[in-house]
């Protein structure tokens, strides 16, 4: 299935790697797997012990559309802060499942802070650094016992950067005895997969139900991630969390994440995702949520906000007005979606078009629910607007942007009125 340079061989069709999970994992009321829509997850980068900053960022991520939020729990102060964070979010009307990210000392923190153990919706355990030597098995078992005691699901998340070195060394030794040894890269990939699978099976033996387990096995290379998750999906029926770890900053992180996750999602692999972007200095953490939503929407998995088709521009469109209008329209619908999601269900499926000249403008505009075709160089200073394929009005003058936004709002009010109002 893999060639000498460890690149995955694509399946003949998507059914070669079907999603096999038949049960759903309930994470604080959010269902993961079992045929449910793929869930968007994010993670804070605040000091969890700073309750005010953490509440503010969780709320920001939630408003952007994150359906679960993970927080670092690495010391006594952060563990003690978790119940307070949950309480303050509840006072704001925000009920989003919070996930505790534990490394090295998670068993001690949960023992010392039972309120933290109860407040979290899920525990994330990394089998590569849950403990070392003789303590590893004991400390892993203690974490699973806490999950059973408090009825919490667990993500067993293996990571390329913290691979179980004892397991990797053992598999390397076994591989060296084979008549046709695997390449070293494939052995390390096997160690990552085995780390996740063996830990999950141990958790089940300890009494944690299979429907309380989510698996992940993250790497930072696109082809490696595809190979790992295809293999993981073939060899287990646990819910799978997807993500390219340490994806990078800016366009590199976005492109790499999309390249890897789009392939897996199209093959039916993955039940929850996170886009692990390095934020640009001074930018909002919510970008990772928006990228995850757009990835799921453009691959046809889910709808989160109206899609805006926009002209890229060419020599026919030297004016920047169509670019500015596209930006305004995109910002407007994203800003309105938290309200529309409640009062205008279905508005997220709406399609919009902002085009820059007569070449493709009318055609693209007719294909959208609402589209506007702006004049290019040398064209008459008029902008026809098409609604559901029919020309509805022609806009002119200096107030086109506001008039077009008003047409969008009116369309949403009319088309997506609640059932009780129809």
Describe this structure as you would to a colleague.
- The chain is an alpha/beta fold.
- It has 2 domains: 25-299, Dihydropteroate synthase-like (TIM Barrel, Alpha-Beta Barrel), CATH 3.20.20.20; 307-416, Sulfite Reductase Hemoprotein, domain 1.
- The chain is built from 13 helices and 17 strands.
- The protein has helices at residues 51-64, 76-91, 106-112, 114-119, 135-149, 165-176, 184-205, 222-235, 250-266, 287-298, 321-343, 361-367, 400-415, and strands spanning 24-27, 30-33, 39-43, 68-72, 98-102, 122-125, 154-159, 213-218, 239-242, 248-249, 272-273, 277-278, 307-310, 351-355, 370-373, 383-387, 390-395.
- The strands form 4 sheets. It has an 8-stranded parallel beta barrel with strand order 3-4-5-6-7-8-9-11, surrounded by 5 helices.
- Helix 8 (222-235) links the parallel strand 8 (213-218) and strand 9.
- Mean pLDDT is 92; it is low at 1-17.
Give me a quick take on this structure:
The chain has 422 residues and is an alpha/beta fold. The chain has helices at residues 51-64, 76-91, 106-112, 114-119, 135-149, 165-176, 184-205, 222-235, 250-266, 287-298, 321-343, 361-367, 400-415; strands at residues 24-27, 30-33, 39-43, 68-72, 98-102, 122-125, 154-159, 213-218, 239-242, 248-249, 272-273, 277-278, 307-310, 351-355, 370-373, 383-387, 390-395.
Number of strands: 17
Helix proportion range: 40-55%
Strand line-up in the sheet with most strands: 3-4-5-6-7-8-9-11
Class of the largest domain, according to the CATH hierarchy? Alpha Beta
Enzyme class: oxidoreductase
Pfam families: GcpE (PF04551), GcpE_C (PF26540)
Domain IspG C-terminal: 308-409
Domain IspG TIM-barrel: 22-292
